Amino acid sequence: MRGFYGVTLPSGLMLGTAQYPSPAVLQAAFADSGASVATVSLRREAGQGQAFWDIIRALGVHVLPNTAGCHSAREAVTTARMAREVFETNWIKLEVIGHADTLQPDPFGLLEAAETLAAEGFEVFPYTTEDQVLAQRLLDAGCRVLMPWGAPIGSGRGLNNPYGLRTLRAAFPDVPMVIDAGLGLPSQAAAAIEMGFDAVLLNTAVAQAGNPAVMARAFGLAVQAGVLARDADPMEPRDMAAPSTPLIGKAWL
Amino acid sequence: MSDVTIIGAGVAGLFAAHELASRGVHPRIIDRNGPPGPHGCSWWAGGMLAPQCEGVTAEPVIPRLGAEAAAAWARITPVTRRGTLVLALDRDRSELARFARRADCHETRPVADLEPELSQHREGLFFPTEAHLDPRQALADLVQSLAARGIPIEKGEVGPDDIDGPVIDARGLAAALPGLRGVRGEMVVLHAPDITLSRPVRLLHPRHPLYIVPRAGNIFMLGATQLESAARAPVSARAALELLSAAYALDPRFAEASVLELGADLRPAFADNVPRVVVRGRVLHLNGLFRHGYLMAPALARQAADFLLTRTKGELIHED
Question: Looking at residue A250, what is its pLDDT?
Fold first, then answer.
């Protein structure tokens, strides 16, 4: 796996920390999945979420604060600065929402905030679309990681544009990339890893499952399966059927 | 002369006093603010006794022990047993299907049969055995029932260390127990003279779930947000927008309602969001009722009394 700002993660599974039935269930989901990164929102719980933040720190994984719910570069930058103080990390998942209904990223606000934050020494994980031009601009701004979306946040639709994601992956072979948002099933996570992405980040698919800890474990296993499959050099699709057992002994013409 | 001192006159402390008194124990009850009022989170509750609906996300012990709540409260205060109706907007039908898969004891019914005024919604899930009460009426009735037994609510700032003998500490967050956190909830109270609902209605929504609990006189309580924050600030504009927009989506006539109250408070909760009796020597801490104050206070009080009188250890008992 490519490193994230110099950090090699033991697992390519990153989990959000919102919407779980209880903190105890959240803890079980992390323990059972082997997730290596916890994202946490500062804005919504702003100010006095101390007890909850202590629970996040106690998970013993890397904490990736995010700017979820910010609708402008200015808001996102303020939230990022606050997150750095609270969690004592330069990592920030940068989310600038461009549309209230689809929650899709605002590419212009994202780039502006990324430039500001990178100049202040933040290690920015930008939540972006699969747009290759925007990706290049984000890298130029100082981002060393990209987080393209699979599908709109919370939609559970998986990899909406596999062609675009493949193209993006191929365009920047050295850049660590995380599929962020839109995953609903472990098979989609495995597909993302098989495609060459380094990690997946999800929240709703686990937190809102009937059994979050079991679903988290399923995602952890799917990520492992994806890594094994990718490293095992998968076959290419063929046009002609090729039997895996010999045909000798049967009549064929 | 009292046999046990209870600190905290919220729903947990008052119900514990009632339970002990009904078993022949004479408790004393003290609260730093005196009788219940807007200073305590019990004041801001919805008053739904909905073990099956809560069981969709809560630990199994909540529906199991919450099942005794309606009968226990009915001995103290009026309890309305008309069930719960769960709805989703057409766009979110999958939320209803998911809720139905995960909930026990319900039936799918045409909304028009149950709440004719909401007949623009086609089908809902009906939980016929669930109930609701008016929390402020319930608190007043508890206070009155205790007064009739010669137990007043004393006003005074004390902690367990200031008192000799057995103590029940039911102060909520003020008890500052390890692992106890505040979960912020915000609610709105409306007066809508044109609207009549006969039971609590829950609206499932991917972002802004809502419940509406009807009270006497066309008063409706809208709740409640759930934030991992211990901020005691007044209701945020965002929360009010979310709750009111969801109510408007449920029934546009809510747009004409008068806003009577906006309330915010912190619910004390442990990591599993299940209440506990934490035993520390002669002090029993009744705490962590989360959003289940009225649903779980009867079971919590019963198990605390069992432990105090017979050392029986129910599943909510945690010896520290």
Answer: 65
Task: Say if CB A18 and CB A38 are below 8 A apart.
Answer: no
Residue B31 belongs to a domain: yes
Count up the domains in chain B and report the number: 2
Whole-number mean pLDDT of chain B? 94
Is residue B192 located within the same domain as residue B256? yes
A37-50: pLDDT as tens digits? 999 988 655 557 78
Containing structural domain, residue B171: 4-46+134-178+271-319
What three-state secondary structure class fits A159? coil
Q: Identify whether B77 is part of a domain.
A: no
From residue A6, alpha-carbon distances to A59, A144, B6 in Å are: 21, 10, 56
Chain B positions in Cβ-Cβ contact with residue A47 (cut-off 8 Å): 229, 231, 233
Taking a contact as any Cβ pair under 8 Å apart, which residues of chain A between 194 and 223 contact chain B?
210
Considering CB atoms only, which of B58, B206, B229 is closest to A48?
Answer: B229
Residue B42: closest CA among B185, B205, B251: B185
pLDDT at B210 > cutoff 90: yes
Q: Summarize pLDDT for B84-109 with one digit per residue, the tens.
A: 999 999 888 899 999 999 998 889 99
Q: Does A172 touch chain B (CB under 8 A)?
A: no
Alpha-carbon distance of A196 to A227, in angstroms, equals 9
Residues B306 and B187 in one domain: no
Domain end point (choices B229, B246, B266)? B266
| Domain contains B76 | no
B280: domain CATH number is 3.50.50.60
User: pTM of the prediction?
Assistant: 0.89
Same domain, B315 and B185: no
Among A40, A29, A57, CA closest to A92 = A40
* Secondary structure of residue B229 in the 3-state scheme: coil
Residue B78 belongs to some domain of the structure: no
Residue B101 near chain A (CB below 8 Å): yes
